[in-house]
Automatic annotation (TrEMBL):
Keywords: FAD, Flavoprotein, Oxidoreductase. Belongs to the oxygen-dependent FAD-linked oxidoreductase family. InterPro entries: BBE, FAD-bd_PCMH, FAD-bd_PCMH-like_sf, FAD-bd_PCMH_sub1, FAD-bd_PCMH_sub2, FAD-linked_Oxidoreductase, Oxid_FAD_bind_N. Its cofactor is FAD. It comes from the Bacteria. The lineage of its organism: Bacteria, Bacillati, Actinomycetota, Actinomycetes, Kitasatosporales. Residues 49-219 form the FAD-binding PCMH-type domain. This is FAD-linked oxidase. Pfam families: BBE, FAD_binding_4.
Length: 475
């Protein structure tokens, strides 16, 4: 077998020729299993997932992406896309060519139009910094290390201003993408509109997004941070949070996290080996009004740590304080239609201080507000009637099998079934949701039919299938 040749390759000579073309013409590395740099190129943040593609192309330009897509077509390989390594992913196997875009990270800010154009590998930390220099702000996720494009294609639920401005996808005006035929297309509401609306919510099913343009907002500061409480106060704090969200204005974006970690030395003392709660808050407005709004939360119990203050927008990462080191973890997502006192009780029974749960994080975030508004340009991001999103994470200890933790978190969703939405959301799909049926549940039926039609148009052979796959509609 030729170097790096996948099992079942159509022709050894063809494989060697295609590798030679990729290596000669691509601006970045072209690597096969066993070569130096291969493991680092395919690495992701969640160590529970390991990629083993037949070849990986480190793209430096849209031309590299198109070259790799055409090569995959000639070799009969599926195509996987890896932007920054964050987000739920499926393992790429030896029948796959992987394209990484982390080297494509240019960002251009237009302060007059209040827009940003970012390449596929751009991260929110740099985007927020660049926009802040012009008094502007995007709608970032919770971590500066998260990639802008993948997050936005999935909808994009911002930790800072989501309830005020809605889904990040609602503000996209232009997308550049290479489709399965190797063509670079420029999609918007008025040009290639079927592709534009399919990519926003349909994600990597229709091509490799190489760049994206979207609106920014004239916000420079937030009244934001987190209130930390002892797990022994979980019932009182969660009930106070439930009441708080029932009257919170759209200018207030918030969530509550149950933190249940082992006694790690880099954690604050009050979090080592014991349950803690963090109420994460971000208010777009004056500090005095923000203080008034969150006063009932501060009074629910005695905070162990209070970091809420007026901060520069560029410090948005301090709200969620997400980990920066890769870990192996199992995720599950769901949407709640409502939260009642009974909902609070069953959550405390399932993941509270005396529950014995091995779920390490439960993050409940309020949606509603601008999230519920229809987009100006129709696209595939739905789930707009949900009240809350719920995320569970179970960290897999070193040396233990991921499979033994596969169902960790499901017990919470089982007990939440009376309040759980039957719908999923494209931005809240875990690897466990990567079946045709579960993926279908993320879209309204009419939207899903349109996505299948777009798939048949732009990727009829379903090359882009290493994802939450939407198969093409059959003739």
């Amino acid at each position: 077998m030729a170097r790096g040749e996948p099992n079942g390759a159509p022709d050894r000579d063809l494989w060697e020729r295609e590798l030679a073309v990729l290596a000669a013409e691509a601006g970045g590395p072209v690597l096969t299993p066993g070569e130096e740099g291969y493991e680092e190129e395919v690495a992701v943040f969640n160590l529970a997932v390991t990629h083993h593609p037949a070849v990986v192309v480190g793209a430096t330009s849209p031309e590299d992406v198109a070259l790799a897509v055409r090569g995959a077509g000639r070799l009969g390989l599926n195509i996987a896309v890896l932007n920054t390594g964050h987000g739920p992913v499926l393992p790429a196997t030896e029948d796959t060519l992987m394209i990484t875009t982390s080297r494509m990270s240019d960002i251009t800010i237009d302060p007059d139009a209040q827009t940003a154009r970012v390449q596929a590998g751009a991260r929110f930390g740099q985007l927020v910094t660049d926009a802040a220099a012009h008094g502007l702000a995007p709608l970032p996720g919770s971590s500066p290390g998260v990639g802008v494009v993948g997050y936005t294609l999935a909808g994009g639920s911002s930790i800072t201003m989501g309830r005020k401005y809605g889904w990040a996808s609602d503000h996209v005006t232009r997308i550049e993408a290479v489709t399965a035929d190797g063509e670079l297309r420029h999609a918007s509401a008025t040009s290639e509109s079927e592709l534009f609306s399919a990519l926003l919510g349909g994600k990597s099913n229709f091509g490799v997004v190489t760049a994206m343009e979207f609106g920014l907002f004239p916000v420079t500061h937030l009244y934001a941070g987190a209130l930390f409480f002892s797990g022994s106060d979980a019932g009182a704090v969660l009930e106070a949070y439930r009441r708080f969200t029932s009257t919170a204005p759209d200018d207030m974006t918030s969530g509550i996290a149950f933190l249940n970690f082992p006694p790690l030395p880099d954690l604050p003392e009050f979090m080592r080996g014991r349950l803690a709660l963090a109420v994460q808050l971000s208010y777009v407005g004056q500090e005095a009004e923000g203080e008034r709004l969150i006063a009932p939360l501060r009074q629910a119990a005695t905070p162990l740590l209070d970091t809420v203050s007026t901060i520069p927008y560029a410090e948005f990462g301090s709200i969620g304080m997400d980990p920066t080191d890769p870990i192996a973890a199992v995720e599950h997502f769901g949407l709640l239609d409502e939260m009642t006192p009974e909902t609070v009780r069953v959550i405390i029974d399932t993941v509270g201080a005396d529950s014995g749960s091995r779920i390490n994080l439960v993050n409940i975030r309020q949606l509603e507000g601008a999230y519920s508004r229809p987009p100006a340009t129709p696209h595939a991001v739905g789930g707009r009637d949900a009240a809350f999103s719920v995320l569970t994470i179970a960290v897999v200890p070193p040396g233990q099998e991921v499979s033994s933790y596969a169902n960790s978190g499901r017990e919470l969703f089982d007990i939440l079934r009376p309040w759980l939405s039957p719908r999923k959301h494209p931005g809240f799909l875990a690897p466990a949701d990567a079946t045709v049926q579960r993926t279908r549940e993320a879209y309204d039926p009419a939207v899903y039919e349109r996505l299948q039609a777009a798939k048949a148009l732009y990727d009829p052979e379903n090359r882009f299938r290493v994802n939450h796959n939407i198969p093409p509609r059959q003739a």
